[in-house]
Design brief:
- This protein has about 350 residues and is of the alpha/beta class.
- About 35% of the residues lie in helices and about 15% in strands.
- The chain is built from 14 helices and 13 strands.
- Strands 1-11-12-7-13-6-3-5-4 form a 9-stranded mixed sheet, with helices on both faces. The chain has a 4-stranded antiparallel sheet with strand order 2-10-9-8.
- The radius of gyration is 21 Å and the shape is globular.
Length: about 350
């Protein structure tokens, strides 16, 4: 049984160690990687999808998860009848917006388990083959491993390996050398050194994904037992190597995926599909870019005013609810460079019914 490239990181998580990780130049770091796999995996991905006719169901913990795909339905309810109806149509995928990132862990697990049970009943009714993906945050915030454990239990896949893919091209999130980075212009900052890691609910210390897994599982999965799919595996050996690693994962193992481009992600996707075709089962916890690769979709241009149905004299409503400094900077740029009118909502007053 091939277990891939095991990450050697046996010490417990230590914030001081993480702070020694340097910031890197994005362009130089990308240039130092092996050349990308030369053949596009997208035709093979689409062919497998057409042949197997599995329905991809994405459990999305936050409303932003659909931003990388197009022509995919999004459900805000998940009763068995609704899920069975969606499984029965000819579309290849749909999202279920659970919004569990806004919940406490116990509630998030209850909601995720309910979706999983209803989904299992819906696919028994319809006979439709289903693959479930847990879409989480590219900056490592969210209920992991609680949500993937809840999905596994509800769908009868407790022993399925977990595959972590936080790469998100559109947001500048890269995993290189098993370390997850957040890009700002040409600077790659280890994720554990960013404001995202200081989140009041989902804070963490480790940028090395193996140590992060150990941290988030409370030591249940030691860093030294985490398996990595490396850039050498992806770019030098291609989808067959990815399939060999994924197919050789032990029951309950955790595997982290390095990726620095959509081509990397597409190679990994094809490898996972090949491994599944040979009998492998996985529960994937991914950022938004993975779903595009899994569907075999090409990127497309941003929607135009005409496609959005905005009349010539119309406008748009932008709702900003994040407290992350990056979002504040983006909002300030919008206000300084447009005719946008800002209305600040007093949330405590809104919740208590007080007039402001």
């Amino acid at each position: 049984m091939y277990h891939g490239s095991t990450i050697r990181a046996s010490r417990p998580p230590c914030h001081g160690d993480d702070l020694t990780l340097p910031k890197l130049s994005l362009q130089q770091t990308l240039g130092d990687l092996p050349p990308e796999w030369p053949e596009s995996p997208l035709p093979a991905i689409r062919s497998i999808n057409d042949t197997r006719r599995e329905k991809l169901v994405v459990l999305d913990d936050d409303p932003t998860g659909t931003q990388t795909v197009h022509d995919v339905p999004v459900l805000a309810s998940w009763d068995t009848g609704t899920l069975a109806s969606e499984l029965s149509n000819s579309l290849p995928a749909f999202y279920v917006l659970s919004n569990t990132r806004a919940m406490h862990e116990a509630e998030a697990c209850d909601v995720t388990a309910e979706i999983g049970r209803n989904l299992a009943e819906a696919w028994r009714r319809t006979g439709k083959r289903v693959t479930v993906v847990s879409r989480g945050d590219s900056t490592l915030r969210g209920h992991f491993p609680a949500e993937t454990d809840a999905i596994a239990a509800a769908t009868g896949q407790d022993s399925a390996p977990r595959v972590l893919i936080p790469f998100f091209l559109e947001g500048g999130r890269y995993t290189i050398g098993n370390v997850h980075y957040v890009a700002d212009s040409d600077v790659l900052t280890p994720a554990g050194q960013t404001d995202f890691a200081r989140d009041a609910t989902f804070g963490y210390e480790s940028s090395n994904l193996a140590v992060w897994v150990q941290e988030k599982t409370g030591g249940r999965v030691p860093a030294g037992e985490v398996v990595a799919i490396t850039h050498n595996d992806i770019r030098r050996s291609g989808p067959d190597m990815v399939a060999a690693i994924a197919g050789g994962l032990a029951p309950g193992a955790v595997c982290v995926v390095n990726a620095a481009s959509m081509r990397d992600l597409e190679v990994v996707t094809l490898g996972l599909l090949k491994a599944k075709g040979a009998g492998g089962r996985f529960i994937s916890r991914t950022a938004a870019s993975f779903v595009r690769a899994r569907l075999g979709q090409e990127g497309r241009a941003l929607l135009t005013k005409s496609e959005l149905g905005i009349a010539g004299g119309g406008g748009a409503l932008v709702i900003v609810g994040s407290h992350v400094p990056k979002t504040t900077a983006q909002l300030n740029h919008l206000l300084a460079n447009s005719a946008t009118k800002a209305v600040e909502v007093d949330v405590p007053a809104l919740l208590t019914g007080a007039k402001s």
